[in-house]
Amino acid sequence: MGPPPAGSGNNTGKVIGIVAASLVGLLVLGYAVTRVNDARTGAGGSGFPAAEYRLTVPNTLVGGTYKLDEDLSQTKGREAIDGSHDPNARDLKPAVGQYTSASAADSGVLVISGMYGRLKHPEEARRKMLAGAADSEGSTVAVQPKDITPSGSGITVSCQVLTARQDGATATVPMCAWADGNTAASVAVVTAATSRQSPASVDLARLAETTLKVRAEVRQPIG
Length: 223
Hints:
Blueprint: H1 12-24, H2 38-41, E1 53-55, E2 60-61, E3 66-71, H3 73-81, E4 89-101, E5 108-119, H4 122-135, E6 139-148, E7 157-166, E8 169-179, E9 183-191, H5 204-218, E10 219-221
Antiparallel strand pairs: 1-10, 2-3, 3-4, 4-5, 5-9, 6-7, 7-8, 8-9
């Protein structure tokens, strides 16, 4: 598969718009994130983990490589959570941030779209988050989801590559998702160059490692 058209030149603004629309929209799915067949899992109050961790939206990520452009937790994130219900999740709160590269010479965007609370089924959460992105308007799955456990981490993330179209521009959008008993989030990192990359050539193992760096920075103990 060849690289998708990228609109007019290195239009990073359009790339940012595509990535933000694809990932922030995941929170609309937030209450199906851990939803599985109630006949199989039950919807009772037992089985929920204790609330020990939360997600933050810090001013920088990945060791200062990306700086916060916009915290959308209390706008897009809050809109998605208010009035919604999932029998397999409790006390959910949003954490959504859009970041841009701190280096003017290396333009790029990182978007994290997540939530924290108490989740019964983390593995299902990872799958549902990627499915939600794939179902968003203008998105097509180019590389099917696969599980990756970066060496030495002991933590499995699920990763996929989409092509996403918005405002006449199409970009390659790789993303990975993690989930545990308290936190769940998807992370996408796109540069002007990788937005034009062939989806099959995307290094998802590298993105999985970056995702765990993000996780280490945003996932903090409560209190």
